[in-house]
Write a structure and sequence with these properties.
Rossmann fold, 342 residues, two-stranded parallel ribbon, UDP_G4E, single chain, seven-stranded parallel sheet, alpha/beta
Length: 342
């Protein structure tokens, strides 16, 4: 079985991708510094797939350790690179942290493979589009000035990858621009596990519903949208994980579009924050205690993707809807109440 390195593999999207890689016949190998995840997720993954994945704990910003690992593991045929700082709001407050973590880790990996052939799938984001001129946004839409340092790291990382693929024969790269991952594995054994105060909407919803938090604050309801709330393209994390497997498979076959390519990964449908809250209330039977606060710096008004290219060329399409996203996240929150993971 082909070995695939998953950086940030104990994190939210990474852990689900490890599961889907294994189900697809690959041998996933995880590197994570555990700065925003727990080593206990390894045992949770083992409960799902029946084996404990190979795990290495270190920081990919460490050039020597990264290079040594790559040199000592010549049988790795592909990389899925998640490891990065990822909160929009925090990036506005701590831009240097984001530029350091997100660039050094990427460059160290690429330099370690400068003399070796590698299939490379990069965790990018719809934030590269900024506030789109037209919706749904396609992959050919202009990349606008980022609204946050986090978004800027994704834009610049894509430029680094495109230029590296053009300059070196050994890199074959796909960047997946995904929208808003939510939900949890159907087993309720893995899901989003924020350390401290959640930075994303759905953990705040589920933690409020279960009583961990007194109330949910929604950042603004005066946007230019039908109900005044921000609109996002929510995608189930399991669907998103499967898109990474599809990207590795396309690179293995040889991508007819060349050595560097980008794909939108979403459902192609936008839901407002209020619609997401109402969907959660419907599937959980809970009434959420929420209030509207001021807008959050760096947030855009509305974005959802055109996923035609992903369907036709990547051979992937989202299967799970908003209610399945909400119900799986609620199952995961209830699991955590009885089985805390810290």
């Amino acid at each position: 079985m082909s070995k695939i390195l998953v950086t940030g593999g104990t994190g939210y999207i990474g852990s689900h991708t490890v599961v889907e890689l294994y189900k697809a016949g690959y041998t996933p190998v995880i590197i994570d510094n555990l700065s925003n995840s727990s080593s206990k997720i390894l045992a949770q993954i083992e409960k799902i797939i029946g084996v404990k994945p190979e795990f290495h704990q270190f920081d990919l910003c460490d050039t020597e350790q990264t290079t040594a690992f790559i040199n000592n593991n010549p049988d790795i045929s592909g990389i899925i690179h998640f490891a990065a700082s990822k909160a929009v709001g925090e990036s506005v407050q701590k831009p240097l942290k984001y530029y350091h973590n997100n660039f050094f880790s990427l460059i160290n990996l690429l330099e370690a493979y400068q003399e070796k052939k590698i299939n490379f799938v990069f965790s990018s984001s719809c934030t590269v589009y900024g506030e789109p001129d037209a919706l749904p946004v396609t992959e050919s839409a202009p990349v606008k000035r980022a609204s946050s340092p986090y978004g800027n790291t994704k834009q610049i990382a894509e430029e680094i990858l495109a230029e590296s693929a053009a300059a070196y024969d050994n890199y074959n790269i796909i960047a997946l621009r995904y929208f808003n991952p939510v939900g949890a594995h159907e087993s309720a054994l893995i899901g989003e596990l924020p350390l401290g105060v959640p930075q994303n909407l759905l953990p705040f919803i589920t933690q409020t519903a279960i009583g961990k938090r007194e109330k949910l604050t929604v950042f603004g309801n005066d946007f230019d949208t039908p109900d005044g709330y921000c609109i996002r393209d929510f995608i189930h994390v399991v669907d998103l994980a499967k898109a990474h497997v599809a990207a590795i498979q396309l690179l293995e076959k040889g991508n007819p579009n060349g050595k560097y390519d980008v794909f939108n990964v979403g459902t192609g449908k936008g839901y407002s924050v209020l619609e997401a809250i109402k969907a959660f209330e419907k599937v959980s039977g809970k009434t959420l205690n929420y209030e509207v606060g001021p807008r959050r710096e760096g947030d855009i008004v509305k974005v959802y993707g055109d996923v035609t290219k992903s369907s036709s060329e990547l051979g992937w399409k989202a299967q799970l809807g908003i209610e399945e996203m909400m119900s799986s996240a609620w199952k995961w929150e209830n699991y955590l109440k009885e089985n805390p993971i810290e």
